[in-house]
Design goal:
Blueprint lengths: L19 H25 L4 H7 L6 E2 L2 H6 L3 H4 L7 H22 L4 H22 L11 E2 L3 H14 L4 E2 L7 E2 H19 L7 H19 L6 H11 L11 H8 L11 E2 L2 E2 H14 L6 H11 L3
Antiparallel strand pairs: 1-2, 3-4, 5-6
């Protein structure tokens, strides 16, 4: 079984590899800004907003029609990072920061991206399947579409609540608010905003349900010791370090797992071999940021001693 890590949150930084929430926020906001200014250019050149949606958005958003999806399968992923409404991107990023921070703190940064993609894709498939299966949806399936990170955020929200429903935030307020209360509020607001957004807002509810189910199953399995995102994380690490020096192609998270580190809040003076765990974590963090070549001879010797059994 996995123990809740409760790792120390890294500082907010564009270059901090361990803060996956920050990186997802940057990607989503960058795509939004690019699309927003492209729309402005279309309007300034008198091309028109309909042409913008035809030329660009139709290739990024998820079509509701299963037949159209077969011609644009990449939209299962691109739609997760595509926003065009200021209010939509603002609310989604606030909730992503909120639940993503909880997840990163309780289960580690490596849960974020795999769950974001897995939950979003499953939610998208639920949406398209509902359009194909529910008779009342057939009439509008050809013209409807979905875009945004709603399904992914729902997966992260339900997933982190599944592993720590009574985790409390804002401790100064009568002992704190349980995480499940925040998640329930998020679900109610999400469903309510969909129902009020358009006459066909109810058609998007299967997408949120799919994302929530995906998050529940994913994190329940993780808590049992089955990390479904481990292979993806290893592949992502190799791809992002393919041009790095060999000394920097060591995954510090895998190294930490092999050395058997545990929650430093519960056992702050636990030793790994002959090395205090707090010292070992400092060295591993340094490797994560700058590579093995950045270690001093003393730090290298400390790492060697930590790998030995007493």
């Amino acid at each position: 079984m996995h123990a809740l890590e409760k790792e120390k949150l890294p500082r907010l930084s564009l270059g901090e590899g361990r803060n996956m929430v920050t990186q997802l926020l940057i990607v989503n906001l960058t795509v939004f800004i690019f699309l927003f200014f492209t729309l402005v250019i279309y309007k300034m050149e008198n091309v028109g907003e309909p042409r913008f949606h035809q030329d660009i958005m139709s290739w990024l958003r998820l079509p509701a029609s299963p037949a159209k999806l077969l011609t644009r399968p990449w939209t299962l992923v691109t739609s997760l990072f595509t926003h065009i409404s200021v209010w939509q991107v603002f609310t989604n990023m606030v909730w992503l920061w909120c639940f993503g921070t909880f997840m990163q703190h309780l289960a580690g940064h490596q849960r974020i991206l795999p769950l974001y993609l897995f939950g979003g894709i499953v939610g998208n498939l639920f949406y398209v399947a509902a359009m194909a299966v529910i008779p009342s949806f057939h009439v509008i399936a050809g013209a409807e579409y979905w875009l945004g990170a709603g399904g992914s955020i729902m997966a992260i929200a339900v997933g982190v609540t599944a592993i720590a429903p009574r985790y409390r935030i804002f401790p100064l307020l009568a002992g704190g608010i349980s995480l499940w209360v925040i998640t329930l509020l998020f679900v109610v607001l999400s469903v309510g905003s969909l129902l009020m957004s358009s006459a066909y807002g109810y058609t998007y509810i299967p997408l949120l349900a799919g994302g929530g189910i995906a998050g529940l199953i994913y994190m329940t399995q993780w808590k049992k010791g089955n990390d479904w995102g481990a292979g993806f994380n290893r592949l992502a690490f190799k791809l992002t370090h393919v041009f790095h020096p060999a000394s920097q192609q060591v995954n510090p998270d895998e190294l930490k797992k092999k050395l058997g580190t545990v929650d430093t809040e519960q056992q702050p003076f636990r030793r790994i071999g002959k090395v205090p765990e707090q010292r070992l974590n400092e060295i591993l963090d340094k490797i994560n940021e700058n590579g093995l070549s950045s270690l001093t001879p003393d730090e290298r010797d400390t790492l060697v001693r930590a790998s030995r059994t007493e």
